[in-house]
Amino acid sequence: MKHQKISAHTQAAHLGRDAKASHGFVNLPIYHGSTVLYETYQDFKELQNRRQNLNEVIYGRYGTPLSFALENAVAEMEGAFAAVTTSSGLAAITASLLAFVEQGDHVLVSDSVYQPTRVYCDRVLKRFGTETTYYDPLVGGQIEDLLRPNTKVVFLESPGSQTFEVQDIPAITAVARKHGVNTIIDNTWATPVYLKPFELGVDVSVHAATKYITGHSDAMLGLITAAENCYFKIRDSVRLMGQCAGPDVTYLGLRGLRSMPTRLERHYQSGLTVANWLAQRNEVMEVIHPALPSHPDYAIWKRDFSGASGLFSFIVDTASETEIAALLDNTQLFGMGFSWGGFESLLIPFDPTAYRTATEWKSKGTAIRIHVGLENPDDLIADLENGFSAMKNRH
Ligand SMILES: *Cc1c(COP(=O)(O)O)cnc(C)c1O
Fold first, then answer.
1. In which domain, by residue range, is 326 found?
2. What CATH number did the domain enclosing 38 receive?
3. CB of 161 closer than 6 A to ligand 1?
4. Is there a domain that residue 308 lies in?
5. Do residues 228 and 291 both lie within one domain?
6. Are residues 242 and 310 in the same domain?
7. Does 220 contact ligand 1 (Cβ within 6 A)?
8. Same-domain pairing of 233 and 339
9. Do 17 and 81 lie in a common domain?
10. How far, in Å, from the CA of 188 to the mean position of ligand 1?
11. Do 49 and 101 have their domain in common?
12. Exposed, middle or buried by CB within 10 Å (0-12, 13-18, 19+), for 145?
């Protein structure tokens, strides 16, 4: 198997297991623990030399064999040196940003980022004297013009998880590398299966494992994967802030990972089916899905990604709140709520106008983000059809 590229499906089924250490059981046990006992004084004393190792059992907060199994599996799937778990996706984002900056520094953040990332930069980083400039996600190599001598990080999210601009990752990382600036990507949308950011020159990748990795809308979990030159810095940042993920949630993360590549195939295909159907509807002005050839960044998506998840957006041709309410309240299979990446479908309206600074959100109509879950897409389409009928009746 050595020189053969192992598929994500096979990796997900086999990584992070140790039947010998688990009395033959397929899965590792959940370790509930804080204190770890050292057998001898010598063992305890020598711990100091082992503290920086990977997979070293020291104390509950620093991880258990189960969290190491999850971290190692995700790192290997994504092509990273190593990974560390956090209590949520947002915690993964904040800990990785904080690892690189100090007072007087500057960071470049994509204008299309997950909104709480932006709020963190504007409120917390600012308070500690780090300034943020938001950049047009389509900036590409021209990000060079925005670099300052004190720029420490470029933070990407591609595609943006509401508006789905696809960034030219290799163009951005080439410039950042040239200037000694680290790059972090929020890779939640594509997951380690559909985008390999380290092959494109990224240093750190963050995941809301709450989404596809856990995959069942039943846990909050974050993961950071990193290249070797950044990993220990990141792990220190996580550890020194007291970050850790609970053992039961870690178990759900590893359990979810097993089926993630298979679930994603379905999200991808059903997402395209629903997107193509929406694109034909009179009520829909635009479907914003990176894997549709009509998307302005389709060529970049095709070059860098090997698939698409079930999350995309569309613009409904109305500004009327009562009509949008009719649509949302008359779709039975689509829930309305934050988050995504679970087995179930979701719809949520959004308006990024207020939180854009580098770019302008010009779309007329009402933007709706859709998560296409694991239901049969024909049932979802019938449900959306009902929603559109109700919308028309409200007109
Ligand atoms: C949900 C989400 C996060 C935050 O993850 P939580 O686990 O909810 O904290 C970060 N980035 C993106 C793109 C997300 O969609």
1. 261-394
2. 3.40.640.10
3. yes
4. yes
5. no
6. no
7. yes
8. no
9. yes
10. 7
11. yes
12. exposed
Distance in Å, CA 70 to ligand 1 centroid: 18
Residue 3 is predicted with a pLDDT of 56
114 located within any domain: yes
| Sign of the CA dihedral running 266, 161, 157, 105 | negative
* Residue 80 covered by a domain: yes
- How many domains does the chain fold into? 2
44 and 184 fall within a common domain: yes
302 is catalytic: no
Spatial CB neighbours of 112, under 8 Å, sequence gap ≥ 6: 137, 157, 159, 160, 161, 162, 163, 165, 359
pLDDT at 155 over 90: yes
Average pLDDT over residues 109-128: 98
- Regarding whether 206 and 73 lie in a shared domain, the answer is yes
- Which tokens sit at 352? 């990024």
114 is catalytic: yes
**Catalytic residue from among 186, 203, 297, 304:** 186
Does ligand 1 lie within 6 Å of residue 94's CB atom?
no
CATH for 318:
3.90.1150.10
- Residue 102 CA, chain-centre distance (Å), reads 25
Global pTM value: 0.97
Q: Which one from 211, 235, 258, 369 is the annotated catalytic residue?
A: 211
Does ligand 1 lie within 6 Å of residue 114's CB atom? yes
Q: What is the pLDDT of residue 274?
A: 98
How does pLDDT run across 242-290, given as a tens digit for each residue?
Answer: 999 999 999 999 999 999 999 999 999 999 999 999 999 999 999 999 9
Ligand 1 pocket member 188 (CB < 6 A): yes
Strand 284-288, strand 311-316: pairing: antiparallel
Give the pair of three-digit tokens for residue 49: 């030399």
In sequence order, the 6+-apart residues with CB closer than 8 A to the CB of 152 are 100, 101, 105, 106, 107, 181, 182
